[in-house]
Design brief:
This protein is of the alpha/beta class. It has 7 helices and 6 strands; from the N terminus they run βααβαβαβααββα.
Length: about 240
């Protein structure tokens, strides 16, 4: 494979689990299970490709609107995912970080998240961010409230101030955002951080998103001309 530019930070909206299951006459929960199994495979492959930060949109603030039975299953699946995959993350030098307000999660899921973050806090091979009960607007509101609470004067507030109060503080903004499942929107995901991110949309449903599909996204990213509002000499 020819050498391509590797983004430092990749964000992915994991979409299509339910539709993947429906196409196979399976319940939506089966799709979520297969989708969860794909998370670590893609995360470790991203690490092997040289990605430093990987942020996955796993459960949004809007996902609470789903049927109670499905939400309950997702919470149990989250617990099982952490319990069964934590040693694999440790073996591969992966630090797990949770973005979002996990106070609303059931006790067993919340405690599992906290314990996993504690166990992996000293690793730096890959920073794996799981966005749980996360919303981009809620992230900004939270940041503004923190700034006000700290008594920072309006004239002292700049973009860095806001960035440093978001869940992604101390991290670079995503270079590449991938959305699986065929929809062309960012769905309240990292809306402040995605200001200059390259967007890649694929119809491939998340359970079918393979290493080869990930490479296609990286190859597409390599062809992008990132000017950040400026111009190149050739323009």
């Amino acid at each position: 494979m020819k050498e391509i530019k590797i983004p430092d930070h990749v964000a992915i909206i994991l979409d299509g689990n339910g539709r993947w299951a429906k196409k196979r006459n399976k319940p939506r929960t089966y799709g979520h299970k297969i989708g969860a199994d794909n998370v670590v495979d893609i995360a470790l492959y991203a690490k092997d490709r040289g990605v430093k930060y990987l942020t996955l949109y796993a459960f949004s603030t809007e996902n609470w609107k789903r049927p109670e039975k499905e939400v309950s299953y997702l919470m149990r699946l989250l617990f099982k995912f952490i319990e069964t995959k934590i040693n694999l993350l440790i073996e591969n030098n992966v630090k797990l970080n949770i973005l979002g307000d996990i106070s609303r999660l059931p006790d067993f899921a919340r405690k599992s998240c906290i314990e996993a973050m504690e166990k992996t806090k000293n690793y730096d091979g890959l920073y794996l961010n799981m966005a749980l009960n996360y919303g981009g607007r809620a992230d900004i509101v939270r940041a503004v409230k923190a700034i006000v609470k700290e008594g920072i004067e309006a004239k002292a507030i700049d973009e860095a101030t806001i960035s440093n109060h978001l869940y992604t503080k101390s991290m670079p903004d995503p270079d590449l955002m991938i959305r699986t499942g065929g929809d062309f929107r960012i769905s309240n995901f990292l809306i402040y951080q995605l200001a200059y991110t390259e967007l890649y949309f694929t119809p491939v449903l998340w359970p079918d998103f393979t290493k080869e599909e990930f490479d296609l996204a990286l190859e597409d990213f390599s062809r992008r001309d990132r000017r950040y509002g400026g111009v190149n000499e050739s323009d």
